[in-house]
Amino acid sequence: MDVIIEEGGKIKIPDEILKKLEANVGDRLNIIFDGEKIVLKKTSIKKEIPPPPLHLLYRPEITHDPVTGEKLNRNLDLEARLMTIPVFNKLAKRGFFIMSEKNRMLAFGFRTVEDAIQYFLSKGTIKVEDLEKAGIVLEKKI
Q1: 103 and 68 in contact (C-beta within 8 Å)?
Q2: Residue closest to 68 by CA, chosen among 105, 123, 34, 33
Q3: pLDDT tens digits for 38-89?
Q4: pLDDT tens-digit profile of 103-115?
Q5: Cα separation, 117 vs 122, whole angstroms
Q6: Secondary structure of the chain: what % helix, strand, coil (to 5)?
Q7: Which phi and psi (to 5°) does residue 55 adopt?
Q8: pTM
Q9: What is the spatial distance between Cα 113 and Cα 78, in angstroms, rounded to a whole number?
Q10: Are the C-beta atoms of residues 128 and 92 closer than 8 Å to each other?
Q11: CA-to-CA dists, residue 27 to 22, 40, 125, angstroms
């Protein structure tokens, strides 16, 4: 397959090669020179996850259920990221993150925060893109 060098040293890589590399616009390719050969490899880039917006946390000082006194297993990083998604922001203001699993189940119908995420994904209330934008990486459940 021929590649033509354009003005300014730019090289146009044929679409067939890009498809085989599974490369898209904006991806990085690693170029290796081996004598007269040039080897192209797609560089795997991990998307940078932004720091959690900890200023959005709802009542981070609460470590025990206000009603039962049960110790809470809060994931403040996840909660802060979820606060950027409107449905979770509304839930937080109703005490969603500051209650025990038993009380959360009674009040909201979800035992864990992860259960709520899965529910809202399945209903279409939130999208995977919303979670990715917030810096949340999900394990495949759905």
Answers
A1: yes
A2: 105
A3: 887 777 655 677 788 989 899 999 999 998 999 999 999 999 999 999 999 9
A4: 999 999 999 999 9
A5: 9
A6: 40, 10, 50
A7: -70, -15
A8: 0.63
A9: 9
A10: no
A11: 9, 12, 31
